[in-house]
């Protein structure tokens, strides 16, 4: 039982990370129909920004800020202006393929210009275990969970309670009407890209101490975000959170109790069942179809 | 340009391309011929995906898995002494049936959900290739897949096998051309453009969706069955999601929904990386940049560039004719 709870907490921590990445993924989809296949690499990259800043002699906290700023500027602003804007009008698939090329580009660039080896990355959590009611839980997991929850709550607050957040929601739900009502839709779309840049930097900060900073880190993560977003409903931020947590827990538990050989497939099969019974995802709304 | 002139131009283009494909390898070294054979094989798989995605509008991330199934069919049967043609038949039938079954979720879910279901299938297929050692020899894969003997001629030399692949590609091309020009092809396009309207006009969308999956997948299986003897070694890592995504890229970069799209996409996906090897370590970086640049310049792919050029010329010719006509009206 203790083992089960430990697995559950580890699964929750992994799931919280997936959720963080999936929320950004969903935001981009909502406002601009961007399926970002490079999302995993977006999480891989900020760790290297931070490492490079530390090599330049900055202390860890300053390096984090530099990484965050670069991430927002490059993975948020430049990504939107250079790649998304020119292709926005031409449907979902060409842009999705272009982001696939982008993911190769980012991965290979880090491998060639930084290092093909995994680099150790400092952790913001103490390397110790917390003993509670006969359970030992690593601080790492607790910090990951805590930071991820805080980030999601802050984002929800921004979206639900502030004027800008509501404008962003309006821009996502019905750009035409939002524009008529005077919402600067273009700027709202840009904001979602900037938020995504910040979210991936945060995820990078949390995940890199666990897996070490390596160019290939994005492979599984991007896929996990994609799956979490779909299972949750793709057009719902709450859905992405539920999808991420579910994926993390199912992944950890099925590997421990069912089969490690088919580790990758069991969550997928379970999730397919969900999709078939709820074709719009767990919390999704049906998207309107034009006849 | 009159209709007849354009047809003549088309025939000339096909003849030139065919002459190049037949004659060029005579000047190539072994590796060049090998890569060109790979182009022919992957183009067959991409033609299949173009039917499913480009014509019928059903997103599939599982084409690589079908190539894998076809390849394992060929590897298992031919190493047991069966002729390749039997393996090809089995691959076609097996992939047709599995593709048909995979089409069922597509009746219920669309777009990214469908992408997800096919992605899951792709992952599952990879794990089966890797874990079911009694059938697939696990991570070690199946080595020494023999080349077939065609018309009493062994195709062990790369050049002969290349001609065999080219012949198969030609067969597939003609068959697909027939298909997309038939009422079936029109029904596929109707499905893509507006499924609800197609349904209300009496198109049996259910059957056509399943058919689009089944036929596209069968072509993937055929490509796999040709791939196994080409490479000689069939192992799981060749058929991961990466292959499916690569095939998807071939279709989009070439021009999704255009008949010639997969051929051009194949050039970009198979040949371009090889040409870029001159820049050594940087070739993948450069390759990714080129693909992004191309898509930014022309989101409808390579065919889109040609199309835009032709439309431009036609509009200019038309406006010149209009100007001439109005001038002659003003001065009777």
Task: Explain how this protein is built.
The complex is a heterodimer of chains A (291) and B (332). Chain A has 291 residues and is an all-alpha fold. Chain A has one domain (2-277). Helix content of chain A is 74%, strand content 3%. Chain A contains 11 helices and 2 strands. A two-stranded antiparallel sheet of chain A has the order 1-2. Chain A is globular, with a radius of gyration of 19 Å. The termini of chain A are far apart. Chain B has 332 residues and is an all-alpha fold. Chain B has a domain at 30-240. Helix content of chain B is 77%, strand content 1%. Chain B has helices spanning 3-23, 30-55, 63-79, 84-108, 111-131, 133-136, 158-181, 183-193, 195-200, 205-231, 241-254, 261-275, 283-297, 301-330; strands spanning 149-150, 153-154. In chain B, strands 1-2 form a two-stranded antiparallel ribbon. At the A-B interface, helix 3, helix 4, helix 9 and helix 11 of A face helix 5, helix 11 and helix 13 of B.
Structural class of chain A: mainly alpha
User: What percent strand of chain B?
Assistant: under 5%
Count of helical stretches of chain A = 11
Question: Largest sheet of chain B, order of strands side by side?
Answer: 1-2
State the major sheet of chain B. 2 strands, antiparallel
Low-confidence stretches of chain B: none
Keywords summarizing the entry:
heterodimer; A: 291 residues; mainly alpha; two-stranded antiparallel sheet; 11 helices; 74% helix; B: 332 residues; 14 helices; 2 strands
Describe what is shown at a glance.
The complex is a heterodimer of chains A (291) and B (332). Chain A is mainly α and 291 residues long.
Q: Which helices and strands, and how do they pair?
A:
The complex is a heterodimer of chains A (291) and B (332).
Chain A: H1 2-32, H2 39-55, H3 60-87, H4 92-113, E1 129-132, E2 135-138, H5 139-161, H6 163-173, H7 175-180, H8 185-211, H9 218-232, H10 237-257, H11 265-277
Antiparallel strand pairs in A: 1-2
Helix pairs in contact in A: 1-5, 1-8, 1-9, 1-10, 2-3, 2-4, 2-8, 2-9, 3-8, 5-6, 5-8, 6-8, 9-10
Chain B: H1 3-23, H2 30-55, H3 63-79, H4 84-108, H5 111-131, H6 133-136, E1 149-150, E2 153-154, H7 158-181, H8 183-193, H9 195-200, H10 205-231, H11 241-254, H12 261-275, H13 283-297, H14 301-330
């Amino acid at each position: 039982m203790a083992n089960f709870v430990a697995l559950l907490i580890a699964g929750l921590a992994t799931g919280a990370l997936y959720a963080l990445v999936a929320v950004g993924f969903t935001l981009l989809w909502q406002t601009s129909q961007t399926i970002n296949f490079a999302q995993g690499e977006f999480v891989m990259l900020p760790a290297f920004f931070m490492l490079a800043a530390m090599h330049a002699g900055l202390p860890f906290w300053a390096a984090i800020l530099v990484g965050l700023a670069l991430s927002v500027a490059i993975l948020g602003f430049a990504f939107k202006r250079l790649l998304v804007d020119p292709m926005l009008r031409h449907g979902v698939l060409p842009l999705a393929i272009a982001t696939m090329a982008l993911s190769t580009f980012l991965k290979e660039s880090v491998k060639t210009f930084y290092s093909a080896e995994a680099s150790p990355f400092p952790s913001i959590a103490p390397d110790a275990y917390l003993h509670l009611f006969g359970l030992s839980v690593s601080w790492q997991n607790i910090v990951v969970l805590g930071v991820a929850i805080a980030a999601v709550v802050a984002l929800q607050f921004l979206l639900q309670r502030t004027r800008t957040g509501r404008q962003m929601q309006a821009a996502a739900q019905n750009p035409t009407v939002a524009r008529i009502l005077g919402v600067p839709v273009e700027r709202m779309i840009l904001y979602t890209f900037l938020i995504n840049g910040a979210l991936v930097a945060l995820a990078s900060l949390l995940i890199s101490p666990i897996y070490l900073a390596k160019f290939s880190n994005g492979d599984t993560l991007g896929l996990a975000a994609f799956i979490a977003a779909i299972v949750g409903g793709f057009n719902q931020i709450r859905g992405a959170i539920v999808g991420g947590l579910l994926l993390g827990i199912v992944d950890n538990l099925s590997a421990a109790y069912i089969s490690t050989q088919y580790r990758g497939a069991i969550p997928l099969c379970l999730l397919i069942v969900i999709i078939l019974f709820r074709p719009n995802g767990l919390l999704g709304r049906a998207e309107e179809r034009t006849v | 340009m009159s209709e007849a002139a354009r047809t003549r131009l088309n025939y000339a283009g096909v003849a030139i391309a065919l002459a190049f494909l037949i004659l060029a390898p005579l000047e190539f070294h072994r590796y060049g011929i090998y890569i060109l054979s790979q182009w022919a094989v992957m183009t067959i798989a991409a033609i299949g995906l173009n039917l499913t995605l480009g014509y019928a509008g059903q997103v599939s991330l599982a084409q690589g898995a079908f190539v894998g199934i076809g390849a394992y069919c060929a590897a298992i049967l031919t190493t047991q002494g069966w002729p390749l043609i039997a393996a090809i038949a089995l691959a076609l039938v097996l992939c047709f049936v599995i593709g048909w079954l995979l089409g069922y979720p597509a009746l219920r879910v669309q777009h990214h959900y469908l992408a997800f279901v096919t992605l899951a299938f792709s992952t599952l297929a990879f794990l089966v290739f890797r874990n079911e050692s009694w059938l697939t020899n696990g991570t070690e894969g199946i080595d020494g897949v023999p080349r077939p003997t065609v018309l009493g001629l062994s195709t062990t030399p790369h050049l002969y096998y290349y001609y065999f692949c080219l012949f198969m590609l030609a067969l597939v091309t003609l068959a697909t051309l027939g298909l997309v020009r038939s009422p079936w092809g029109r029904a596929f396009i109707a499905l893509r453009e507006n499924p609800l309207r197609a349904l209300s006009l009496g198109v049996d969308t259910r059957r056509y969706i399943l058919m689009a999956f089944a036929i596209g997948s069968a072509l993937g299986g055929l490509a796999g069955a040709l791939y196994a003897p080409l490479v000689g070694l069939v192992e799981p890592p060749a058929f991961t999601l990466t292959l499916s995504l690569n095939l998807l890229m071939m279709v989009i970069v070439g021009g999704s929904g255009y008949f010639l799209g997969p051929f051009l996409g194949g050039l970009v996906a198979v040949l371009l990386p090889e040409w870029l090897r001159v820049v050594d370590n940087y070739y993948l970086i450069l390759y990714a940049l080129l693909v992004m640049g191309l898509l930014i310049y022309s989101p409808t792919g390579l065919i889109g560039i040609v199309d835009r050029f032709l439309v431009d010329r036609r509009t200019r010719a038309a406006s010149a004719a209009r100007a001439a006509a109005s001038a002659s009206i003003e001065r009777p």
